[in-house]
Structure formats: C-alpha cells, structure tokens
Amino acid sequence: MSGRGKHTMAEGLDLGKCFEIINNLTTEAGRLIARNNETRQDFVCKSGDIDLVTQTDQDVEKLIMDGIRQHYPDHKFIGEEESSSGGGVNKLTDAPTWIIDPVDGTMNFVHAFPHSCISVGLKVNKVTEIGIIYNPMLEQRFTARRGQGAYYNGKRIQTSGQKELGKALVTSEFGTSRDEPKMLAVNENFAKIAKQVHGLRVLGSAALNMAMVALGAADANYEMGIHAWDVCAGDLIVREAGGVVIDPAGGEFDIMSRRVLAAATPELAQELAKVLTQFYPQPRDD
User: In what order do the strands lie in the sheet with 150-152?
Assistant: First the structure.
C-alpha cells in the first residue's frame, strides 16, 4: 500500500499518519455508503433537479471531518456538503486542508447504481500530498501519496500511455447543472468527441472517471463544471500513475477553476484540448 515506507513530514505533519487515519475513516464511511446503497435513497435538491444531496452525504462528511478533527483540530476543510450548506467554498490557504466529496456520484447512489465513491485529498501549502478515491460497493480503492506512486487495492498502477485520440476511450459527464449555455457546450463536445475517439463513456462520477484514467482503463477524462472536491484526489492519483492533468484549454490545471482534463499522456491531453469547445463555469470555487 502506498502509505507504507518512509513517513514524509510537511510543516511538521506526519503524512504517513494522516494517510493511515484517512484510509481507516474512508473504510468506515464506505460501510455506511454500501449499506445504504442497497435500496433507493430519499434525497433533496440543492440547487436544481439534478444537484442532489442525501442524508448519507451529510453523515459521511460528518464522520470523516469529526474523525480528522480528533487528531488534527486545527486542520481546515473544503467539503461539498459543508460548502453547499454554508453558502460557499472555503478559501484554500497554505494550512493543511482536507478536500472532501463524501459521495461523488450521488445520482448513481440514489438509484442504487453501484458506481459512486468517497473522494478525499489533503493539501499542505496548497500542494496535494494524499489522495483517496474509494467505491465501497465494488471494493475499488485508489490511493496516492505525492512522490510515491498510485495504487489500486494496494497494487501499483499506471496510465495506458495512449497518445492518439482516435484510439482513446474518453470519459466525461453531463454534470449537475442544466443551464443552457453549459448544455450547449456539453452536447457540442459529445457530438465532436464521439466522432473522433475510440469510445466515449458517461459513468456518473467525476472522481471515478479520473481514477479510470490512472488505472489505464480509460485514456482521458474532461469536464467543465466540476468542483475542487470532485478532482483533488483524482488529480494526484492520475499524476502519480504517470498521467497528466491540465486545463481543458491546454494550460495549467487550476483546482479552483471548476475545469479539468486528465489524460494518459501529454500528447493525448493536448490533442483532446484542441478539439474541445470551452466553457468557463461561474462562480469559480475561490
């Protein structure tokens, strides 16, 4: 497992201990999600018919945050449910900050479709040090520590190495927002991409889409409209698996921009970026 070996210290923080704590907390939270995924869930709409929240989202986020606070009372959090209930996203600072999506793929979850996950990243000095994506229904655990590689259920993984768009399996999403300008861009991209790639998949979880790129099961993933908590862990896991994460227009990735493009290789990333119709979601996360 990637948490073994020499413990790295950042700002006097034992990252090996942090990894162990969050690994255990995601296991505990995963049991809660898996148990509740056996039946269709009640939900409420946050901002529209598609943006959903369940009691499980809130329970999982509380379990993880309370568990971290027991060890690190001064750590900061940026979490999906905390942000939606508190009226905005906490500003990312240099302080150790846990970025949490308690159930990524809530639409799948409320339908008992077993493709959703917990996604947690830890940033220290604005650098992601730890990433975990865990789908408890299918027992898929993706983990990474900065500089120590990416792992799937304890085994080292790497991206496919694919460089050609025409041979690439690409993932994306419709997203939770259905406003017209965004949907025009989404549909235009699906129409363009479908003609140029080997295959296109919409699986319903931004974090798991990125994990599939790291695993080598998909070759690229793009989405405009995600949030920091959807992509923080996935960004590190993809890069530690040898892939690249950039802005969908081809520039540097900005975790607060609500835009992401992950790919097996820099060549594939840039080829895909050239094809995409761009959309810039507002407001940004920061």
Answer: 76-79, 97-104, 117-124, 127-135, 140-145, 150-152, 155-157
